[in-house]
Structure formats: structure tokens, C-alpha cells
Amino acid sequence: MLSPVDEREMSEAVAGAEGPLRLVGGGTRAIGRPVVGEGLSTAGLAGIELYEPGALTIVVKAGTPLAEVQVALAAENQRLPFEPMDHRGLLGTEGDPTIGGLVAVNVSGPRRVQAGACRDSLIGVRFVDGRGTVVKNGGRVMKNVTGYDLVKLMAGSHGTLGVLTEVAFKVLPGVETQACVVINGLSNGAAVAAMSRALGSPFEVSGAAHTPAGVDGHPVTMLRLEGFADSVAYRSAKLKELLAGDGEITVETDPVRVAAAWQSVRDVEPFHGRDGDVWRVSVKPSDGPDIAARAGGDVLFDWGGGLVWVLVAPGTDLRAQLGDFAGHATLIRAREETRASLPVFQPEPAPVAALTEGLRRQFDPKGILNPGIMS
Fold first, then answer.
1. CA-CA distance, 66 to 63, in Å (whole number)?
2. CB-neighbour burial class of residue 160 (10 A; exposed 0-12, middle 13-18, buried 19+)
3. Is the domain of 50 the same as that of 194?
4. Does the predicted TM-score (pTM) go above 0.90?
């Protein structure tokens, strides 16, 4: 395992590589096809470079544990806007998630419906490309001399365009109060309709999720409201009025219970420790119930129905089972042989695939950075 301790050593390690490199952050997000190559760790590049609470910005080295960043932000009553998922429980991995790994996978959580994904809060990156060249874009260096929006390109590239060494984020103030409007007993279709009404209302819903099998085996639909206490109380009451007649409605205000409920959605806890493959299907919310019916496994709806988590039998080709649909399906958890035999990511249309390949050749002409992970 190559373990550079700074950006210069990282650049030298990549420039001197004679074969494929398998990029390693915290080792907690084993997503994508298995990569065969020499390990290259970012763990030595750790620490908060710059934090300006008044400017709502933070600049962090890529190998910094996410928990360290969250502690620093919490001390100033601030947070990352996109509520990053913790994959460890779902994937059965250990270690500490890193901020660079979070960007590489473009991780987000239930708040994406309101705040956007990781890439939407990312304002700057530094990385080492496949030649060993240090590239910077955005953040404290605002001029983009390459013609590419590298900040957006790096988020979700799974290390195939470069090895992240530093990332910069815009952050948001923390929330004073959370509440959860809970509807019991809805079918999948009725739940998606209720969530769509709530998200389309003026009451600033920051999370909308539905599980057909709640803690007691009965369907539960949840709508989260955040902000100042008086505002949350008012909006909860108005949302309850809006949805009256959709089912048994209650409002949960206990902060511990609300936080636990949304952590469960964020980390897909209903599928933890259960045998089977886990797929992540993104569609327009109105298509969510049909996707769930065609999938035939256990499901969890997030993003108002636009994200459907599906648990199916090991080795299931969910795309073949679903047939044609407007969206994309990603294999998140499966045995290594399944990840090696099925496309982990939704196959791209030929023109998009050609563009993607061209970008990879531009930034990694030797094809050594996590080769094949996204194929």
C-alpha cells in the first residue's frame, strides 16, 4: 500500500506508477466493480486547512475523517447541507469515512430533496491526475483555466479522473428544532402522492420517506420539518391539515426519536444485516410505486419516492427484472462475483459513454486510476 503524507508525495506516487492503482480512503464504501491494482491511500493527507464560520466555508484535506469535519462544524453550530449517508452498516465495512471518499462517491442523504447532493455544496477541489499533475479548480482559486467544471466532474467520478487531495465546501447553520409528521397505513401509491403534496407545499419539507414495513410491520410515511421552534410547530400543524384524510397522522417532536428515524432512512437501516443484494434506483417520484412492484423485493422510498432502495435475492439482475424504465439503477451491495459480472452502474447511452471515455483519457491517459470500477 502506497501511503503518501502530502500532495507532493501523492503526485510522485501517481507519476511513478507502473501499473493500476486502487484508491483507498477510509475503506468504508466498497461500491463499484472490484479493482485490481496497488493500493494508494489518501489517509496521510488529513486535516482542516481553512475554516471560516462567518463565510460558511471549509477547506479540508481529502483523507480527513468525516467525523472530524462534523465535530468542527458542530462546534460552530454548522453542518454539511447534504446529510451524507454512512454506508458501513449497509455494506458491513469498518473504518472511518473520509471527506474525499464522500466526494468521490457523491454521497448524500434524505435532505437532498431540499439541499441538493454533495456536488451542489462542493465549491473547490485539488487533485492529482493520472499523469501526476496537481490540478486545482474552484474554492480559493476561482479561475477555471481548463474549460471544465472540475468541481462537478470530480464528485461521483469514483477516483477515475484523479486522486483528490483537498476539497472545499459551503456549509449551513445548524437547525434549532426538528419534527416529523408521521402517516400510518398508506399504500406505496398513496404514500408517494402524500409526499408529493407535502414537498410541493410552502412548508419547507426537508425529508420525505416511506417504508412499506415499519418498525411494527405496518407502512409508515415520514415528513421532516426543520428550523426555529415556532416555525416548525406552525408548519407541522399546517402540513397535518393539508394531509388530513390520508391516514392516521401524528407529529413526533422528540429530538432523539426524530434524529434516529431519519438516520435509519439515511443509512438504509432496514436492510442492515440481511442477506441479499441492495440496489439504488433513481426515478421520477410518480414512477416509484411501479418500480417497487416490478422489483419484487423489499423496498424503502426516499426523496419523496424518487429514490427507491431495493433488497433482492443474491445475484439478481434487477435491471433485467425491471425492463425499460426512465431512470437508473445502481448495484450498491452484492458479493464480489456479482459485482464483477453485472454492470454496477446504469449503462450509458453510446454518445454519453464516448464523452465519458474521452474525459478519462484526458485526465488519466495511462488508465491507471481505479480502472474498471465504473464499467
1. 9
2. buried
3. no
4. yes
